[in-house]
Amino acid sequence: ERFGRKNILFSTMAVQTGFSFVQIFSTSWEMFTVLFLIVGMGQISNYVVAFILGTEILGKSVRILFSTLGVCIFFAIGYMLLPLFAYFIRDWRMLLLALTIPGLFCVPLWWIIPESPRWLISQGRYKEAEVIIRKAAKINGVPAPAVLFDTTEMQDSKPQQQQKAILLDLFRTRNIATITIMSLLLWFFTSVGYFGLSLSTPNWHGNAYINCFLSAVIEVPAYVIAWLLLRSLPRRYSLSGTLFLGGGVVLFIQLVPADLNILAVGLVMLGKFGITAAFSMLYVYNVELYPTLVRNMAVGATSMASRLGSILSPYFVYLGAYDRFLPYILMGSLTVLIGILTLFLPESYGNPLPESFEQMLKVK
């Protein structure tokens, strides 16, 4: 919120790529894990910021396309390439090198990707925002008006520009605090289901590399469905429906006879399909709920709750040592419960992105 979307995007990308390269030369397990922690900080940060930057630059119809078929499908492609790389490159240092080099291809994008005009306007940097908007209009063949920002609007927005967002702003009123707490819970439990099912793939029967690849492949149709639902249906019902599908199917796994392993794997994949579709919708939904001043912070905070869920998810998987169905019962139940909670969140479908807290407070 303070330094802009573009600067943080490329600095965190540099952290991820640079420390991934240093990690190759690790001389101990302790050194490897400390470096891996820093790489992870850079990776999730640039993922969130890239998402925010794209949604703030693009118009409403393209924004949904970017958020689902853009960001998420390219995430799935990277996910599919991972077991492919790992299958052919068995030395961990060479594998790390192969996964680090693509980060260098992002360097030329500095001269292509612009800063968010919405963020520039919120900071009172109208001239810079106007240059970006006029360039976009020229590229798209749209005639831009002679005056983009009038003096009255600029004066009216000065009080907002002087505000500095802090984390407590996400709890500044009872209404906003309720939305924030519900969003944190939603991200946390959805992440438990998503990563729990993703990390359980080695426990399936068959080749671990193929299982990991299949777990990635199922995400592609999930993102397509998410895009189609977001285009035409209210956010709450789309999100709740996919969570009910994912959680309900995972709960049914315990009823499958032990000799029908293929059916059990199929149900796990269908559960992953539902939870993955819901996960991709969460980003769009959160972006639409919060104003520009705290949007990046809000998505960052909810994403942090998601990381807490991903930290706990391996322990859900380990519960399979006591009862092979116990992880699925817990993950399925939590996913269904969070699907019910989603129905109590406000609806953002068809509304413009809020620019101020006043606009957000209108949503109950």
From TrEMBL:
Cellular component terms (Gene Ontology): endomembrane system; membrane
PROSITE patterns the UniProt entry points to: MFS
SUPFAM superfamilies, per the entry: MFS general substrate transporter (SSF103473)
A single GO molecular function term of this UniProt record: quaternary ammonium group transmembrane transporter activity
One example of a Gene Ontology biological process annotation: monoatomic ion transport
Main localization, broad class: membrane
Ranges where the Major facilitator superfamily (MFS) profile domain occurs: 1-350
Membrane-spanning segments: 7-25, 31-53, 65-89, 95-113, 176-196, 208-230, 237-256, 262-285, 325-345
Any coiled-coil regions, as ranges: none
Keywords carried by this UniProt record: ATP-binding, Glycoprotein, Ion transport, Membrane, Nucleotide-binding, Transmembrane, Transmembrane helix, Transport
One Pfam family here: Sugar_tr
Subcellular location as annotated: Endomembrane system
Membrane-topology descriptor: Multi-pass membrane protein
PANTHER family in the cross-refs: SOLUTE CARRIER FAMILY 22 MEMBER
Family stated for the protein in its record: Belongs to the major facilitator (TC 2.A.1) superfamily. Organic cation transporter (TC 2.A.1.19) family.
Designated name of the protein: Solute carrier family 22 member 4
Protein species of origin: Tauraco erythrolophus (Red-crested turaco)
Highest classification ranks of the organism: Eukaryota, Metazoa, Chordata, Craniata, Vertebrata
